[in-house]
Amino acid sequence: MPTSGPRTIISAMDDRGLLHRIDDDLSDTWIEEWAEGGMQAIENYLAKHLAFLSFLDEASA
Q: HEC profile for the chain?
């Protein structure tokens, strides 16, 4: 089956908006932004865990 031409991975990624820019990783604040995102994820996880433990305590009382 003939195609209209080769389709590169880069253009396919760009069409869907998934092209990664290395400039974002090289910014002066990348480590702070990365750590902030990680800390937020941990805090969200711990809040859910605490809510579940509170639920179990109330259910057993």
A: CCCCCCCCHHHHHHHCCCCCCHHHHCCCCHHHHHHHHHHHHHHHHHHHHHHHHHHHHHHHC
